[in-house]
Amino acid sequence: MKKATGQLCGSRQTAEFYVNPADGTAILDHNHHSLKDLPWDIPVSGTIYGTALNYKGALAALGESVNEPPYQAPPKAPILYIKPANTIISCGMPIPLPEDITEVEIGAALGIVIGRTAVRVDEEQAESYIAGYTVVNDVSIPHESVYRPAVMQKCRDGFCPVGPWVIDRKAVTNPDDLNVRVFINGELKQSNNTNNLIRPVSRLISDVTEFMTLNAGDVLLVGVPENAPLAKKGDIVRIEIDEVGVLENHIASEKELVKEAVR
């Protein structure tokens, strides 16, 4: 069992407990609980920053287009975007599928949770600024262009499930060598490893904090692997990251969820 922090719905504060990241079980009040037994709340409180094209395969998939206008070269610095507060939901909550969309991309991402104010951090010292790690589903409507901010595609309500907990950084052997898997309805749809990152965890923190401050509680996503699988209404999506945890949500009609909310 490994030390983690998290929050349950109805609780006013974050709690510390022990979990088994492999099967999603947790020990609370000396009792073992499965992932679905507990009403998980969002385990993080800061801004969530996504990183685009940080997997080698994702950049390679663009082919020669990276050498064409408007940029005419591969990116030289991290490409960041924000998953705003309206997108963030907890483990177990439904992911709203917009009425005019049939499928969404499932973006399996390791989330680096910052533990203290980070400004111009040396790569060698970056680990000391990490509080822990969490699992994030960077949901997106499929789109081709990476040259314009994809606000309409990435910032819809409920498009960023997080959790179920934040695993202590000391409980993760090597964040740059973690298997990442996506299951849809129990079937393995994607498998990758963080050893395929262009910027490993410490370098990513160093490069980002060179031009902006990360505050305690902020979450920096390392990126989404290439060939993100698609999910449709009714699908159950499960993301597993070794040593970190299991995040599970289902896809539901946004229209139906709104109707339920106003009853």
From TrEMBL:
InterPro entries: FAH, Fumarylacetoacetase-like_C, Fumarylacetoacetase_C_sf, HPA_isomer/decarb_N. GO terms for molecular function: 5-oxopent-3-ene-1,2,5-tricarboxylate decarboxylase activity; isomerase activity. Coiled coil: none annotated. Pfam families: FAA_hydrolase. Residues 47-251 form the Fumarylacetoacetase-like C-terminal domain. SUPFAM superfamilies: FAH (SSF56529). Its EC number is 4.1.1.68, 5.3.3.-. Keywords: Isomerase, Lyase, Metal-binding. NCBIfam families: HpaG-N-term. PANTHER family: FUMARYLACETOACETATE HYDROLASE DOMAIN-CONTAINING PROTEIN 2A (PTHR42796:SF4), FUMARYLACETOACETATE HYDROLASE DOMAIN-CONTAINING PROTEIN 2A-RELATED (PTHR42796). Belongs to the FAH family. This is 5-oxopent-3-ene-1,2,5-tricarboxylate decarboxylase/2-hydroxyhepta-2,4-diene-1,7-dioate isomerase. The lineage of its organism: Bacteria, Bacillati, Bacillota, Bacilli, Bacillales.
